Amino acid sequence: MKKIIIGNWKLNLDHLEAIQLLQKLNYSLDVDIEEKIDIVLAPSHTSLRSLQTVVDTDKLKIQISSQDVSGYLNGPYTGEVSAAQLSKLNISYSIIGHSERRTVFNESDELINTKVHNSVDNNIIPIICFGEPDELRTNNEFLRFILNQVNSAVKGLRKDKVDEIIFAYEPIWAIGTGKVASVEDAIQVLSTVKEEVSKKSFFDEEKTRFIYGGSVSPSNAAELLNSKIIDGALVGGASLDVEKFVQIIRSIKL
Ligand code: 13P
Asked: pTM for the complete prediction?
């Protein structure tokens, strides 16, 4: 399976800074790596058009993702950005159900499921995030919690609509804390999710990736990313630093 490294820039960088970071990243990577690993950047909505224009004009291999997509298709929903609008910009992916959206913006499992449908209906690959808060891990209830999040997110998906999907395990206690999940913990969750998802009619082994996110850094990337089960990483803080991000990408043994 081709590995994927996604940089989630969150609420950082204006569009000029975003272009600079994209170009710096591109200069730091050789074409060989870019062909063997999918490298994706998820900037704020305001930078999507600028970055996609640079990618198209300079024929870069780096791909662009949005950080979110609306649950609505069009109409009187001030502030929303639809899947069709993203698709028109040639955006390839959208992060959906990030824990920051679930907790800070109270996004429900139902809304996340609608966003997943809107994405696949508009040829945008959903990066579906899930993960438990600290108290559930210590209570050992986290697997049930996670499977519930995953099952809700993919409810009603049909094989003829779905091309690729990415499932991203991001334990809330590991996000931005420097406290990374152990490889064993990440593998346990991702294999359990894979087993569950592989029962679904839309599942395609070749086109479904299972990745990890939460305090991924140059010091822990090699161990996580060279495991057969972990198909890639969703990187927050370290993706804003080109050197660190490149080190993470280079830690994958090709
Ligand atoms: P950090 O890498 O900063 O922990 O963030 C992870 C994340 O939320 C990526 O989506």
From this structure: 0.97
